Amino acid sequence: MTTPEIQTTVPTRYWHALPDGRIQCDLCPRECKLHEGQQGLCFVRARQNDQVVLTSYGRSSGFCVDPIEKKPLNHFLPGSPVLSFGTAGCNLACKFCQNWDMSKSREMDTLMDQASPEALARTAERLGCRSVAYTYNDPVIFLEYAVDTAIACRERGIKSVAVTAGYISPGAREDFFAHMDAANVDLKAFTEDFYRKTCGAHLDKVLETLRYIRHETDVWLELTTLLIPGHNDSDAELDCMTRWVVENLGPDVPMHFTAFHPDWKMTDVPRTPASTLTRAREIARRNGVRHAYTGNVRDEQGASTFCHGCGERLIGRDGYRITHWQLTADGHCPKCDTKLPGVFEAQPGEWGERRMPVRMAQLKCEV
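Below the sequence we write its predicted structure tokens.
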């Protein structure tokens, strides 16, 4: 059976015409202003025939089944497998990007595999995935593809997870997160100077998104900060960041502090020592963050989940593997009956640390 060709260039809604003849893309705060034939900074949204189109619909840089803890999400269906994929391009310009081969790519050849939203939903179901993650590069820039996939997944009882920097404008933000079930937002630092000079963005726009997700949606939210030695890891900045999280998002939003490795345009910066992650976790907990984690290092204490009521260890982890489970069927601590915030099932998944690349073309042939 021949698989129908996917329409890879599709119209978008978030733009308007300017008096000078240019068209402004309204997807994100960057507000790229385009002449005919020009692309936005993200590379995948362009002006064609006097409208802004998405040029990467249905095209991916790769598909893979991962543990949900790798996103990272520790309070959303622990132990379950998630079908992950991304496209090319990004609407930020982070000098430390850890996925620069995809997010910074301006070559459409990077997009080696294709899948319609319906095919992705069928594949996730067939592989036993409880969710699909829009990740590797920022799903904000392929909003139309992500939303259509989320709709197809929801029809099959499969959740959608956004791994994003949260750099999105209000109208598009409402549309995007209406279709997500969980999100891990990369809070890259807590100074405007870092965002402007290192990411080409603005901190306040990300904070607006965080407030929106937490207070205006039912999306389960977790945060990640990649700590870069000498750039965003001072006690003062971590203190300010974690206080803001508790005051504006509440104490139940988990925070992940992960280790940087030299990459892209910051190869002269050393790796993050494990002690920095532990220090960040301690600062967060001291300021009222109930669930703070260390990542990209082997640290069972820093990766495990504890009851904020009595201190009982509820979920033990070694890397991405669950080693201990002590939650009641309805997600409470068996010792003091405090409810653990998050989305849990009666038993954890058993996916473990496996990473399984998926070739969509091969799966189509096997159907």
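Residues 203-216 form the longest helix (14 residues).
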